[in-house]
User: Fold these one by one.
Assistant:
Number 1:
Amino acid sequence: MSILILAEHEAGALRPATLNVVTAAKAIGGDIAVLVAGQNVADVAEAASKVDGVSKVLHCDDAAYEHELAENLSALVVSVAEGYTHILFAATAAGKNVMPRVAALLDVSGISDITEVSSGDTFVRPIYAGNAMATVKSTDAVKVIGVRTTAFDDAAETGGSASIDTVAAAGASDLVNFVGQELSKSDRPELTSADIVVSGGRGMQSGDNFAMLDDIAAKLNAAVGASRAAVDAGFVPNEYQVGQTGKVVAPNLYIAVGISGAIQHLAGMKDSKVIVAINKDEEAPIFQVADYGLVADLFDALPELSAALDS
Amino acid sequence: MKILVGVKRVLDYNVKARVKADKSGIELANVKMSMNPFDEIAVEEALRVKEAGNADEVVVLSIGPTQSQETIRTALAMGADRGILIETDELLEPLAIAKLFKHIVEKESPGMVLLGKQAIDDDSNQTAQMLAALTGMAQATFASKVEVDGDHLNVTREVDAGLETIRIKSPAVISTDLRLNEPRYAKLPNIMKAKKKPLDIVAVGDTGIDVSSGLTVVEVNEPPEREAGVIVGSVAELVDKLRNEAKVI
């Protein structure tokens, strides 16, 4: 078997998500090639070549790939796809944008969000917001797969010594132009790869009150997340959302504050190692998945928690 | 411009999915079914584009069992103009759905196709991207804002690190994210009127489209259960447990 992975990167470095995908590829077994596409990404290609388990890096430097436009990236992946039995993407917003296009262009099914590799052709993926796990088997000649990053460990960033081959660009679509972006700036760790996540829900009552979570997150070196209710209410931006349709996280510690625990929120965090719930409603469903529950008004509990973390 | 909107009949989002005893799938008999929430957002956006004078017709397409007519009627009651049902009792993969949408796109020539970013049953998040790839139309997924500008569309997208804006040429495929709009409720007079709006029903076999799939579901299982935890009495006890029992801080 021969596996191709589309690398994700930013600011000249591989995103951790790609390391999770390499681990999924190792579970499938076979030669692993990583495609690094972007502008001025020689350093990323170099970093990918050192990742443990990677045997080949395909490096494509072209302005067409600067903004991860799906039209251009899918055309490039398809142009190098021949000979591979599996093509893997991280199930991030960027990966989800491209994976199904590649599958459709190759006339095969896409396999979204796998959490387990049973064999080279059989995979497990959550459906119905994680309330069921489907085992699916593919008879397609090439398996095009999105990998849920939280379900696979990071591959080691050292130990590999892959060759780096340059590949030709595959053109740029004239139907789409990148206009701009508004990215959140934070000193906190990234939500999907943080060891600790502190999330707030509708119970936070306002965006200003999230400062209390920021304070605790700073003390724990944690990322800050939110429930859909908090995002819909405008307390915090969309990139904070944890859940079925937002980000999936699985940190060592997840602290849910003022979050009732709707099915779609649980889908995004119930694989966390330890879950803490702080909610004044003792009937809140979040307590059913929590390892430690505290029935308390968050406006009393958070200042106390902040002080206790200092001692 | 004509807008084509996709709607899928799914298990209502408030109903907890139960795995069938024979592990063949999810129990869907005698449970409440509704329009996929992301598709409601797609219908609403199409109506808003039309109400702003940038479209003249909103056509709703569903692919599914005969009961999907109800889902189409819901969209018609919200204000869509007519419906098409491609009837099938099979659970089709996104690739087959995208091919059937392409078939309708070729007949209807919409300037914009609006689809939910994912259905809350299989959570695939594939159909819009596949349709764009198969038709060669421009693609804008996870949209939180859509602005019509002549024969172009400026679309703001929800991405992992925030928001991104792209400018795409019509005709285009757009998939909707949660913050795009808040869907309206159908009013009673409109529900009555919707019953008289045109709804064409086509058997999937009559489309001539190959809907076979290389992917089969072997079995469906319950997810692993989390063990019940404990209720702590105070913040001090919580911090102590996290430090000395769970050892996570």
Number 2:
Amino acid sequence: MTRLAFYGDPPPNVEGADLPGRLIVLEGTDGVGRSTHIALLKEWLEAHGHAVIDTGLRRSDLAGRGIERAKRGNTLDSLTLNLFYATDFLDRLEHQIIPALRAGMVALVDRYIFSLIVRAAVRGVPRDWIQDVYGFALIPDKVIYLDIDIAQLQPRVVASHGFDYWESGQDYLRTPGLFDGWVTYQTALLAEFRRLADQHGFTVVNARGTLAEVFHDLQHEVRQVVEGMSRQSVLPPEPNDA
Amino acid sequence: MPPAERDTKLNGARLMVQDNFQRGESGFPGRLIVVEGIDGSGKSTQIDLLQKWLQSRGYLTIFTEWNSSPIVRATTRRGKRRHLLTPLSFSLIHSADFASRVHAQVLPALQAGAIVLADRYVYTAFARDAARGVSRPWLRRLYSFAADPTLAFYFDVPLEEAIQRIVQSRAAIKYYEAGMDMNLHEDLFESFRIFQGQILNEYEHLVEEFHLIRIDATEPLVDQQQRVREIVEPHLQGVARIPDRDMHDFLRQVGLQGRYIREAQPAP
């Protein structure tokens, strides 16, 4: 059961009984491996007969494209961007996440409100304001924070897509090079993430290990949440099942 | 400067983190004048007349309108056209639009000493979104980054008269305008009537809470404008005027017609 409980005032018209599904959130900074693990967890849960939806930032029908378009320009201030992301999140909460939970599905969310709060906070937006804006967010069954340090993150970013404008905080930092900006920005993000992890009691998973190690820990955490849910045996159990 | 000359304060200025927003409580040299009211109250006509008057007296003015940010508007339009908006996403996307205009239009103009004229301001969100069931305290906190207006006029019109004006002047009432998303009534027109009535009721509370200046919008147009100007006048003290604003005078002086000057120049 996902309790129908919110951080602040619930969205209007959202009421009723608790939801039979489960809401599981993966949080962590850019390059920590969230999307890889979401993909793996989804396949694993489905193989065990769970119906799964996954969602992440900018994937709303309403505002996803608008944000992409806005980010291409150079006139976007951080307050507008934050409220744009809040719109995108709310649209997915109302139209993807809550309906899926109502239908008894497992919702795997790649970044919930916490990444958005962290990104706002490092840009100087007051924490109490941005947390308050997101008061309409449903409290997840579990928030897993993939914990990492700059030193381990660095080679992963180089090996994948490299240093990107937004992930290096270039919209608000004025650093001569991308790398300096990336270090400053990611260091600030990690500090904010850890602060939130303490405040909200996230489940912290060490993301410094190998893919197999991290995934094993994630399976352990997720298994506890989905335990006892009704399942459909759509697929035979896999031989190398953990 | 004495407070009278800097009475446009940043409310919740702590939100405005960019360096140029750090003026905080000290206020801005400009003025912010707001008109509010339900559809059909005549507020847009009044603010247009006010702007022309101010311009003719040499004041630098800028006009900003609800739901008009070039960055956000397309998303709002998409949501409306496809009926994707819920009460809360309706509220949030309009707050994004507002934030974008505050950043790009309102604050820079106030800092530059201009008179900003806003057709609808935060009170529109407070009234409409609350009528849709959004939490009133949350709305006030959401919009805490908005500067307090120097003057906020409320154009008070009875519901039936406003509806009559709308029906006479417009081809169709739109889905969200009529509050059709609220399932108030299956008939568009009836739904519009109910929803506008609820908004009117919210405005009544806002007039008290925020000391909006009530203008009787059933009075003749010129009388309303006269009253608005009388109220605005004392607040113009200390606001910079721009020389050479009157292009016509200038052209007459230099004996030219201004044939290649674009339309964007101040109207005569």
